[in-house]
Amino acid sequence: MSAAFVQKSGQRARADEAYRLFALGQDVSAEREGQRAALMEWSHTVLFDILANGTGDNCKPLSQSPFGLWVRHRAGILFEGTGALETIRSAMRDIDDFILPGLNPEAAVGPEGASHFIGELRRRIDEIKFLLNDLFQTASAAENGHDPLTRTLNRRFLPSILGRELALAASNDVPFSVLMLDVDHFKSVNDRYGHSSGDAVLQQVADLLLGAVRPADFVFRFGGEEFLIALVETKLGRALEVAESIRRICEAHVFRLPGQEDIHVTVSAGAAQFEGHPDYTYLINAADEALYRAKNAGRNRVEAARG
């Protein structure tokens, strides 16, 4: 084993740990409550479907719900290797593979059979809620490595997070896409209104980006006025829709500057989908090339990477 490989592995391990510390240093209470709410929303949807239609066949499996996405991606980084996370995953498999199919009228043997599976569903959901609380309560919260201006992920976490997401996409045969976004004419904002106003614009853009993506996705400050968004389990077509939605949101937003006039700011974006290359920089470069074309075509637009 070469010294270079050992050094690279050590750097990756340190980046993984740094991200865990960073992410746990965010609003842990809000993240916990958000995931509890997502879990309960899925549970209520299933129970309502059973009451209305006599079956839960129309409901997505828990693993495909927003809560399932969070467990697979963010929780997989934050709490990997913990017994509670493995038990949550096991409970989710039981729900998807045994309990939901058991709620089908053809599978249930009389009303007692259906009642049994409904009771099992409630028991498993309660178990997951308890374990979720346990995960957050026992995790040590620490502020480390965030971008101090925008509160988005620091670029140094890119190798750790994108490397893991590419591996997940390849092993599970699911799509993965990234967006590269740039604030249009940002230098002009700095020159005309000053750097404090430029900072205010970046903070507001970051807030809009964070509000436009799912809890399982990742938003990075890539550098200067550039941001990168990692969209998990997302095809290129959907990534373009997300980028266009962000473009419209930013275009319509009134950016309030400290003590000065309000202004309008636009963004340009490039989108690319993972095509199997294990080096995450290939994916970033493809999205960056699409962003370059968007800016050259007049800005305030979205372009897709060329295959």
Automatic annotation (TrEMBL):
<dbReference type="InterPro" id="IPR029787">
    <property type="entry name" value="Nucleotide_cyclase"/>
</dbReference>
<dbReference type="InterPro" id="IPR050469">
    <property type="entry name" value="Diguanylate_Cyclase"/>
</dbReference>
<dbReference type="GO" id="GO:0043709">
    <property type="term" value="P:cell adhesion involved in single-species biofilm formation"/>
</dbReference>
<dbReference type="Pfam" id="PF21118">
    <property type="entry name" value="DosC_2nd"/>
</dbReference>
<protein>
    <recommendedName>
        <fullName>diguanylate cyclase</fullName>
        <ecNumber>2.7.7.65</ecNumber>
    </recommendedName>
</protein>
<dbReference type="Pfam" id="PF00990">
    <property type="entry name" value="GGDEF"/>
</dbReference>
<dbReference type="InterPro" id="IPR048442">
    <property type="entry name" value="DosC_2nd"/>
</dbReference>
<feature type="domain" description="GGDEF">
    <location>
        <begin position="174"/>
        <end position="307"/>
    </location>
</feature>
<dbReference type="GO" id="GO:1902201">
    <property type="term" value="P:negative regulation of bacterial-type flagellum-dependent cell motility"/>
</dbReference>
<dbReference type="GO" id="GO:0052621">
    <property type="term" value="F:diguanylate cyclase activity"/>
</dbReference>
<dbReference type="GO" id="GO:0005886">
    <property type="term" value="C:plasma membrane"/>
</dbReference>
<dbReference type="InterPro" id="IPR043128">
    <property type="entry name" value="Rev_trsase/Diguanyl_cyclase"/>
</dbReference>
<dbReference type="InterPro" id="IPR000160">
    <property type="entry name" value="GGDEF_dom"/>
</dbReference>
